[in-house]
Hints:
The structure holds 2 protein chains of 2 kinds.
Chain A: E1 2-5, E2 9-12, E3 18-20, E4 33-37, E5 46-51, E6 58-62, H1 64-67, E7 91-98, E8 107-108, E9 114-117, E10 122-125, E11 137-138, H2 140-145
Chain B: E1 11-14, E2 18-26, E3 29-35, H1 45-58, H2 63-78
Amino acid sequence: xxxxxxxxxxxxxxxxxxxxxxxxxxxxxxxxxxxxxxxxxxxxxxxxxxxxxxxxxxxxxxxxxxxxxxxxxxxxxxxxxxxxxxxxxxxxxxxxxxxxxxxxxxxxxxxxxxxxxxxxxxxxxxxxxxxxxxxxxxxxxxxxxxxxx
Amino acid sequence: xxxxxxxxxxxxxxxxxxxxxxxxxxxxxxxxxxxxxxxxxxxxxxxxxxxxxxxxxxxxxxxxxxxxxxxxxxxxxxx
Lengths: 149, 79
């Protein structure tokens, strides 16, 4: 299918690349279908979680281990039951990035990662309320140290 | 808002598939048990609000800013 996105213009999306978020994500419960795009440029550590239901909606996302190598996701099985994860290798973990005007103040949400089971293309944003990870983790310096990854 | 009085061990049904029960009461704290279908997300209200606000801040970022960031990085690599 073709969607007309705000950032990337009209793009063609293969149905099997569409990730279903059965619960939506907090604040955006009305949309369920997203696609993960990597086409900013090859060197960029960022990817885009582009909404399919609402093409004007997109989030910048990053692999949290890029900025925090020891990052671990700790959630109750019951919380991710909906994802039907059978094999850990199928799991993709992403953090949503806030990109303010001053990009040195860029943050990633380590508290509430996006978890995608790539085996069945189902996703959920989980909230790790028992962990100490911050909602606003400053990432600019870590990215500079990583040398653009 | 509907307000109901419940004792420990009692529950409330919301529709026919969401059950909220009072598991324990200790001083000012109430332990609540929630049985809901898998596609109903359950969160503590204050953290849900925080994540919701953060998602709203994150929505539709300026892609140009991130592109500039990429360029800046590659320049530093060359140094």
